[in-house]
Amino acid sequence: MENRTIEPTDLPARRVSRVMQHAARRLLSAGIDTGFLDAEVLLCHALAATREQVVLAANSLLSDSELRAYEALISRRIAREPTAYITGVREFWSLDFHVAPGVLIPRPETEILVEIALGLALQVGANQPRRIVDLGTGSGAIAVALASELADAEIFAIDLSAAALAAAKGNASRNHVAGKVKFLQGDLFAALQVNQQVDLIVSNPPYIRRADIDALEPEVKRWEPRSALDGGWDGLNFYRRIASEAFHHLRPDGAVAVEIGAGMGEAVAALFKDLAGSAEVKIYHDYGGNERVVTARKIARE
């Protein structure tokens, strides 16, 4: 960022604060509710600067090249490209993740799944190391977050998409847990050995009802991979598969934790009760009061 002294003849429109405010108004006019935040994030990215540096430079002037770079980013955002894809980075669990088109962007709501999974990890698996499977790992957000917190865990991150696995591997290295996560390509449990048993299975599967996808925000329906969104006509396709197969791969006291969409708690819980057989099933809400996670704890048969 150029830090020039402002002279009376300088154009006020070049000031960092003015440029950012103008960009925010344009984003808001385009229907983007997060216009102010996005304008700041994208200016930081254009200038390769931190938020603190941008705030301190509020009265500095931007050069022609800086203005052009910023305008290009704002234009992409007005076209409803997600900010995370533009910057290539999304924070999750206080860790930085690289994201790109073809990989679902991690959501803050998924952090509650990580919290619950960590609690379950302390309860299951007398054998060491604990074995944990992340089905449909995507960017690797859940697997990497768990690996960063569990010193003794052996984590298997599974995805059908080669692009997603490549991103997840990079994110594991980026966050210094590459040696704790094994990456497997395959369709859910098909990637595991037939009789391989684990202590905990976690997943944030596709759960949007197929008919509802076109009503989603443009950032989601136009940019994010449909395969990571489409849960079938009722949104439950992947839960049926997980519920019917999970307990074949769980040790006697193992557990499953899955993220769910709003209002899906009872339906998903019923699947685990009906298909998984002997299970203790619970529904958890997020901090906004929405149903967010269903867990099923395996009950050993006598």
What does the model show?
The chain has two domains: 12-79, Helicase, Ruva Protein, domain 3 (Orthogonal Bundle), CATH 1.10.8; 92-298, Vaccinia Virus protein VP39 (Rossmann fold). The chain is 38% helix and 19% strand. The protein is built from eleven helices and nine strands. The strands form two sheets. It has a seven-stranded mixed β-sheet with strand order 5-4-3-6-7-9-8, with helices on both faces. Helix 1 crosses helix 2, helix 1 (16-29) packs parallel to helix 4 and helix 2 packs across helix 4 (64-78). The radius of gyration is 22 Å and the shape is elongated. It starts with 15 loop residues before the first helix and ends with a strand.
Q: Layout of helices and strands, plus pairs?
A:
Blueprint: H1 16-29, H2 35-47, H3 51-56, H4 64-78, H5 83-87, E1 89-92, E2 95-98, H6 111-123, E3 130-135, H7 141-149, E4 153-159, H8 162-174, E5 181-185, E6 198-203, H9 218-223, H10 237-245, E7 250-259, H11 265-275, E8 279-285, E9 291-298
Parallel strand pairs: 3-4, 3-6, 4-5, 6-7
Antiparallel strand pairs: 1-2, 7-9, 8-9
Helix pairs in contact: 1-2, 1-4, 2-4, 6-7, 10-11
